[in-house]
Amino acid sequence: MDINTIEKINEATGKTLPGFAKVSLALLFMALVFLWSYTSHGNVPNNSFLIIGAVFGAYMAMNIGANDVANNVGPAVGSKAMTLMWAIIIAAIFEAAGAFIAGGDVVKTIKKGIIDPALITNPEIFIWAMTAALLSAALWLNFATSVGAPVSTTHSIVGGVMGAGIAAAGFAIVNWGTMGKIAASWVISPVLGGIIAASFLLFIKKKIMFKKDMVSAAKTFVPVLIALMSWAFATYLILKGIKKLIKLDFFTAAGIALVIAIIVYVIVKPLVAKAADKIENTRLGVNTLFTIPLIFAAALLSFAHGANDVANAIGPLAAINDAVMSSEISKKVDIPFWVMAVGAMGIAIGLALYGPKLIKTVGSEITELDQVRAFSIAMAASITVIIASQLGLPVSSTHIAVGGVFGVGFLREYLDSSETKFIQEMRSRFKKDKKELDKFENELSKLEAIEKKGKSDYKRIVELHGLIEDKQELVKQEKKDFKSAKRIKYVKRDAVKKIIAAWVITVPAAAILSACIFFMIKGIMS
Fold it and tell me: Which residues contact residue 459 at a Cβ distance below 8 angstroms, ignoring those fewer than 6 apart?
């Protein structure tokens, strides 16, 4: 998606739904959550923080929709596989479906076990801490969205819980080993995602794009790639997306996914062959074969995100609900349907109102994407999560997706450096052949001048005519090739710096903000 198209979308969105209207709709949703939680929990003792937590949960969910969901659909929109409107509709439906159908019914109240809740003996203090964690994570996501930086929802919650925990019970409450693993994921997630995405893109280029007959190569390899995508996403969904419905080990999940992949291959091979017969033997033609797989990838990534990450993101609200209802602190709690509903609906609303900004960042502001590049990023997102989960590495889906965008961008830059050498060699060859052509033409002019006096070398004149004709054709072709050779756009360094900076400071920023909010709540309630 080019920048002009994005700007037109933004202008149209601004005309049809001004900023004030967006804020009004967001406030209306939070007001409805407030009214529902107040009327349904009015007789519950100490219900004030449950009602406040519900409002903060709604705010958090909208910020997840505005920031985190862009990673699932941004590449598909940026590559023009789908329009922005359809991306929002598909993501909203599948995020909500993932949360409702396969969302975790039990969640650790302390995300990733980063603090020990046993060190907080007073349920009231615990409720304050979870409220501070929820609000700080939401505020940080809101800020990141406003500056166009895709950050990790998980890391925002981790920072919020850590900061509130330290404020409530001191530094001893934090599991620093777990925090070290989370810090390592800042490097692991984007590097793994980038390497895998770049590997797929390089494979597609070498096996299809760099071939003379791209259509025949596409008929052979596109069905294989789609089957591989089916295996990766089926494994990913079985392990991470539907673990509430059925829990299987990796090898069983991979085996089931392999059967699905074989069935998909048998079905799509004739369909791809039929579609390939209608396309031109060009890069743009081959790209169109990846459009439908990309749409499916965006939908499946959204479903898995709704099932896996959303429930964890609203964990603090579930913890507040449990602490208020039972007057005790639990390590694991049920997520009530109304909490899941707040999360699912909030994500859909946040995505619809504020999602385009981050979709723009992921889809077009880092590097230019087409369907093949976006397909490579989607493959990286699913395969990296599978590898990391089997190795026990904590990774962020946001960092993986954006790392995949970095990977394809830097691969393009590497290939561009090869192309630059080609251009330099072509320029040198062109100059050399042009010089030789000028030399032949000068010699011919002299011989033709002598011929008028009857003293020329007729044999050499005929030879020079042939040499000049051949050299003229060569120079003409070299000139044409030189003009058609274009440098590929590089990864935008400013966008990379901004995103990496936001990643690095997410946990400490959310932690500091959470601690400040906790002390503010404590001061008000004391």
Answer: none
Identity of the residue numbered 37: S
Burial pattern 438-456, b for ≥16 Cβ within 10 A else e, equals eebeeebeebeeeeeeeee
Encode pLDDT of 362-388 as tens digits.
776 677 788 898 899 888 888 887 787
One domain for residues 317 and 402? yes
Query: What does the pLDDT average to over 103-114?
Result: 57
Whether residue 260 is contained in a domain is answered as no
Are residues 178 and 45 part of one domain? yes
Same domain, 392 and 512: yes
> Is 258 inside any structural domain?
no
Whether 450 has a pLDDT exceeding 70, the answer reads no
Residue 114 Cα to chain centre, angstroms: 26
Closest of 88, 90, 31 to residue 352, by C-alpha: 88
Contact (CB, 8 A) for 199 and 141: no
- Judge if 187 and 124 occupy the same domain: yes
- Whether 289 is in a domain gets the answer no
More confident call, 369 vs 133 = 133
**Cα–Cα dist 357/113, whole Å:** 32
Indicate if 479 and 495 belong to the same structural domain: no
Q: Look at the chain and report how many structural domains it folds into.
A: 2
Task: Return the residue matching tokens 């003792």.
Answer: 45
Distance separating alpha carbons of residues 72 and 355, to the nearest angstrom: 11
Residues 194-197: contacts with CB under 8 Å, at least 24 apart: 194/380, 194/403, 194/404, 194/406, 194/407, 194/410, 195/407, 196/379, 196/380, 196/383, 196/384, 196/404, 196/407, 197/376, 197/377, 197/379, 197/380, 197/403, 197/404, 197/405, 197/407, 197/408
- Residue numbers of the domain that contains 70: 3-199+297-406+491-525
Q: Tell whether 380 and 500 lie within a shared domain.
A: yes
| Cβ–Cβ < 8 Å for 320, 53 | yes
384 to 128, 350, 375, 446, 503: CA distances (angstroms): 36, 27, 14, 70, 18
Element (DSSP H or E) covering residue 57: helix 48-67
- From the list 306, 296, 320, the residue with the least C-alpha distance to 350 is 306
How confident is the model at residue 43, as a pLDDT?
75
- Mean pLDDT across the stretch 481-492? 55
pLDDT digit string (tens) for 44-57? 777 788 888 899 98
| pLDDT (mean) for 214-243 | 86
Residue 428, both tokens: 């040198």
Same domain, 435 and 389: no
- Split at pLDDT 50, 70, 90, the class of 16 is very low
**393 and 447 together in one domain:** no
